[in-house]
Amino acid sequence: MYVIYPAEELLKIYENPIRSLNNTQINSINHEATISKDLNIVCQKNINKVRARSVKSWRYLVFESRANENPRSNPIMQNNRSNGEEGTNPLKELTHATLNESLKQHNGNALKLVQTVSEFAQELGTAMDIHGANMRRLVDEFRSRSGDMRGDIGGMKRIWENLLRQVETDASSHLDLATTLKQLSRPTLEASFPKKLQSRKVFAHREAYDQVVSKTEEKLKKARLNYKRAYDGFLKCSIDSPSVSGAGSGDDEWSTQRRGYLESHNAYVLQLHATNALNEYYQIHCLPSLLGEISDIYEELSNIACNCITGISEASNERAAEQSRRYQALTKEAHAISPQSDLQSLARNLSSIAVSKKPPRRLFVAPAPADQLPTDRINSVPILKDEIVPTGAPPAQDTFEELRREADDLTLKIGRLRDSLDASTRIQRKSAEGSLFTKVAELQEDISMKRFDLGVANLHLAAVQAQKELFGASDMGPLDGINNRKMSNGSTGSNTKHKWLKAFKSLKTSSPTGTSAGDKGKQTMYHAVSTVVAMSRKKFGIRRWTPVARIHIP
Where is the stretch described as Disordered (predicted)? Predict the structure, then answer.
């Protein structure tokens, strides 16, 4: 069964279209939501053709292009987790700004501890040739190093302390372990270096994201200030020249002030939506992705440290039965260390300090007039809403097309960045499997930069999409009180009711021979709606009729 809606009804149905912030893949569970979204997009294209065409809207630039800088291909900050593993990230909710320093300190302690374990293995191998007294001194020295770390970093530190106790017990009997320990030290240090570089990039990128958000907030404040100034100027002009019926310089000044007021309003609304979309994408996508990368770094560092400690304990286990019993227990403890458990414990401790909240969303705030102004003067200036309004200048379609082209360019750029990042990640993984840690470190900087560039590109795309939605959801008709100071009662109220009655009276009662009762109902509805659409086209002076959307009802 097909039901055909008139254009006016479609404008009401799709007044608030579905928002889409990115082009991520949708799971099969959300297949029905995808179909609904596609239908909304198709209908929205038909609605845009029926909207008023003499509209001007200014686009407020949210991002400044980087001068003299070649565009880089990079995807959003990604980690190596699959979609199923993203939900197991214990740090995904720790997006509050006050927790950044705690996370940075925890990550730095993990890096420092891996380096300490590596140095310990090297010096322990050398110290195996020295008397037991020197061995005890060495153990005490490294115990004091780990004691300088503020806070507990979980199982890594516990297994480290256990190792110190075992080495202190067997200090006099490990002379043959010197060569083995030296062979374990250097790979541990080399394997931790790329993670150290990646850690620095992650926290530097978060600061860069915060700067982008801060600049957007500043632009929003500036747009709000300009909006207030334009409102005050227009209000003053309306007070000085309350009537616009005559001709003269007063009318020109009123028109100029009016245009400036509407343009500043549009700029403020555009910037408001861009800021909200940027903050929302940053809090929902960028920050959890960065936290997931921090989790990956900690897991790999924990594995590196535990593998080194396991190697030391296994080598010591070969020397004597007594040593074997102690170091077997240490080996099992090292294998039992769970980075996820450590991170979950850290998340519980930090969650008590600050509770994560949803990204802040700025609301539209219209300027308020002065208290001493009379009510009729205040009513002479229309109260605008959180939407794009016509300005009487060139059509808004140019701005919408520019936003659409920019969104398409950003989408292509994001795709290229993702492909480039995937290729670099595969090369880095193969290099790590071949123990080419120098090459892994070289690739890590490029991968981190690509991830950051992809994150910035997605932030831009989120802002552009939010601005595009304003042209689809706003009413582009004339403003009451500006273009039409006196509304006509002929286009509102009961006129719609009379049009429907007239349409049903004009229906043809005859139908082709052999037509079923269901087909008659379809033809009746079709003729009724077609008549109303023709009357509306004639009423509003639409020269070319755009076919309305046909919605299939199973």
Answer: 69-90
Q: Cα separation of 342 and 173, whole Å?
A: 34
In contact, 476 and 390? CB cutoff 8 Å: yes
Task: Report angle CA 467, 471, 475 to the nearest 5 degrees.
Answer: 135
Token digits of residue 507: 């229906």
The percentage of residues in the chain with a pLDDT greater than 90, rounded to a whole number, is 20
Q: Which of 506, 503, 389 has its CA nearest to residue 6?
A: 503
Count of residues in the chain: 554
In this structure, are strands 2-4 and 550-552 parallel, antiparallel, or unpaired?
Answer: antiparallel
Handedness of CA 262, 267, 273, 276 (dihedral sign): negative
CB 418 within 8 A of CB 75: yes
C-alpha 453/C-alpha 472 separation (Å) is 29
Q: Which of the pair, 334 or 71, is modelled with greater confidence? A: 334
First to last CA, the chain: 6
DSSP letters spanning 401-438: HHHHHHHHHHHHHHHHHHHHHHHHHHHHHHHHHTT-HH
**pLDDT class of 339 with cuts at 50, 70, 90:** confident
Question: For residue 121, is pLDDT > 60?
Answer: yes
Tell me, rounded to whole angstroms, the distance of Cα 509 from its chain centroid: 57
- In the numeric block, the tokens 């959890």 are attached to 288
pLDDT at 215: 93
Among 457, 400, 448, smallest CA distance to 421 is for 448
Distance between CA atoms of 260 and 265, rounded to whole angstroms?
8
The angle, 0 to 180 degrees and rounded to 10, between the axes of the packed helices 437-473 and 178-240 is 20
Alpha-carbon dihedral of residues 273, 279, 281, 283, nearest 10 degrees? -150
Domain ranges (residues) in the chain = 1-17+487-554, 83-473
CA 167 and chain centroid, separation: 49
pLDDT digits (tens, 9 = 90+) for 204-243: 998 999 999 999 999 999 999 999 999 988 888 877 665 5
Kindly give, in sequence order, each residue whose CB lies less than 8 Å from that of residue 178, ignoring residues fewer than 6 positions away. Answer: 125, 126, 128, 129
Nearest CA to 119 out of 67, 167, 182 is that of: 182
The matching CATH number, chosen from 1.20.1270.60, 3.30.70.20, 3.30.360.10, 2.120.10.90, for 83-473 is 1.20.1270.60
Return d(Cα 185, Cα 122) in angstroms, integer. 5
Residue 88 is given by DSSP the state T
199-204 long-range Cβ contacts below 8 angstroms, 24+ apart = 199/107, 199/108, 199/111, 199/294, 199/297, 201/444, 201/445, 201/448, 201/449, 201/452, 202/77, 202/290, 202/293, 202/294, 202/297, 202/448, 203/100, 203/104, 203/107
For residue 223, what pLDDT is reported? 92
